[in-house]
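U., I forgot to send this yesterday:
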Amino acid sequence: MKHALWITALTTVSLAACSPPAAEKAEKAQPAAVATPAKPAPANEALPGAYKLDENHASVTFRVNHLGMSRYTARFTDIAADLQFDPANPAAMSVSATIDPRSIETDFHGDKPDFDAELAGPSWLDAAKFPKITFKSTKVDVTGPATANVTGDLTLHGVTRPVTL
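Result:
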């Protein structure tokens, strides 16, 4: 990290040193181009209807704090999700998702080569006993033109709790 900061600082100083004096810059300056107005945000072009997640291009990623010094990152790769989409009536929209906890993957390759299997095992997710993690929306609150808070029931390890995404 220190090396990156030094390289950035040296590069900035070097570029500033090669730059012409301010008077020369002003002489060489071209007239300012006429500003064009900002384009309005595009309207939502998605059609209402039922949508399915493309499982080949999706994962659910999460991080867990490790002693306040770093984070473990993991992901689930076996996911199914459905969306009922209606931009004219956001309150009627819904989403549901199912995750197979055995699909957990980490990039941890330390002294536990079977760490992923351990996480899916009885000490953690107990995937044999609880083979699904599910989310089913109960409410959609629109917060902006392309954002919303989605409240629903998350079931993990046999316990269901309300969460807002």
